[in-house]
Structures are given as C-alpha cells and as structure tokens.
Design brief:
single chain, 3 helices, mainly alpha
C-alpha cells in the first residue's frame, strides 16, 4: 500500500517524484497527455508552451473558439 501512495506523486512528463498538481483537462492540439494522476506544474507548463508554439495563429484561434 505504501508503494501505491509513493507512486501517486510521479510526474507523467518527467517521471520524477514530487508531482504537485492534477493535469489540466483541456490541452492544446498536439499537447501530450501526462497519463498520470499528478504532474509537476513546471513540466505541464513546458509541455503547454511546446504545443502552443507548434500552432499557427489561425490554429490557436480556431481551437480557442471550441473551448
């Protein structure tokens, strides 16, 4: 049981312990999902920036209209 609790704080982006937040449910197109219950805020932010930078202004605008 202790192992399960310890593994809950593994970040799905970097694989390191100490994940401190629940991943945001809405992602940019091409933004990877962590696939875990928790992530580091910094790791999620970096992935969000990466995906955002891949989109054109038009793609961003079209996506934001669907949210």
């Amino acid at each position: 049981m202790a192992d399960a609790i310890q593994n809950d704080d593994i970040c799905g982006f970097c694989g390191k312990p100490g994940a401190d937040k629940i991943p945001h449910p809405v992602r940019w197109p091409r933004e990877e999902s962590a696939g875990t219950k928790y992530v580091h805020a910094e790791c999620e932010e970096a992935e969000c920036r990466r995906a955002h930078s891949l989109l054109s202004d038009k793609e961003r605008e079209l996506f934001l209209r669907t949210v």
